[in-house]
């Protein structure tokens, strides 16, 4: 199994993934604890700096590139400072030609304020979200959909990152799937939808976390293995998907495929998680790239489990490199960065 997984990591370097969906600006404001305010019982931070990195579909694309693959990113950006910084922060392996610019629009911004002492690890103390409305402009949506179809037509896999803006619609994905089926052998299509998973049908794989499954089906899983099995099989049937990778945090992953026994993958790494920001983007990027390289869904999920265990040991929105993934596969251990 180890040699097979290493072969897949190597093969992934020759694959291209179309990453379609919501590009988010992940902003991190860093400060040092200074004193307690006289105005209210709150801490005052001495400002150290701000970083802005790609989140959402941007982070998924960055993870594809870090793993050695090529990513064609299709999304929407505006002209605000955060949007420009997101575009500049995309790594070299990400093709930006599919980024549609819309005047008067700004990407959603998730601002995380991190506080700590001079010699201590900085912790997130608050998050502020600035949502964005997709322009009610047929031209903008048409440009996005054309870019999505063009990228999908030239790639080995399609990754859909739907954070709820309404850009990555199920009808668009269905059209991409039909076009791929007519053109050549089926191209893997992997879906991550935060709020609208049940509307997507016929994907190669979906990667919801446990909370999203519970919300979609109106139930609680917890430590109930029978409930987990029912939930996974119900969702698999309703989605008419070829497979489902249900991520469960410290409980690992469960992989559901029609007609096969459920595979349970224990969590990789340590219980001392540094930051889960963007971990789902890392997981779906690894799965999409592995499927493009010829992996089975179980093999792809095992690789994604390694990658997820590595990325949660890093602070902030982060990526995992191909070399890090190879090291984890070879040793079965995660080394702290």
Lateral strand order in the biggest sheet: 5-4-1-8-9-10
Number of helices: 10
The fraction of residues in strands falls at: 25-35%
Question: What low-confidence regions span 5 or more consecutive residues with pLDDT below 50?
Answer: none
Provide the residue-averaged pLDDT. Answer: 91
Descriptive key words:
single chain; about 325 residues; alpha/beta; 6-stranded parallel sheet; 4-stranded mixed sheet; about 35% helix; globular
Layout of secondary structure:
Blueprint lengths: L1 H11 L3 E6 L1 E14 L6 E14 H10 L3 E8 L3 H9 L4 E8 L7 E8 L6 E8 L7 H16 L3 E6 L7 H14 L5 E5 L11 E2 L3 H8 L7 H15 L4 E4 L5 E4 L6 E3 L13 H14 L4 H15 L10 H10 L6
Parallel strand pairs: 1-4, 1-8, 2-6, 4-5, 8-9, 9-10
Antiparallel strand pairs: 2-3, 6-7, 11-12, 12-13
Gist of the model:
By secondary structure, the protein is α/β, with parallel strands linked by helices. It is 36% helix and 27% strand. It has 10 helices and 13 strands.
Q: Please, could you describe this protein's structure?
A:
With 337 residues, this protein is α/β, with parallel strands linked by helices. The protein is built from 10 helices and 13 strands. Strands 5-4-1-8-9-10 form a 6-stranded parallel sheet, sandwiched between helices. Strand 2 (23-36) and strand 3 form a beta hairpin. Helix 2 (57-66) crosses helix 8 (279-292), helix 4 packs parallel to helix 5 (170-183) and helix 9 crosses helix 10. The chain is globular. The two termini are 26 Å apart. The mean pLDDT is 91.
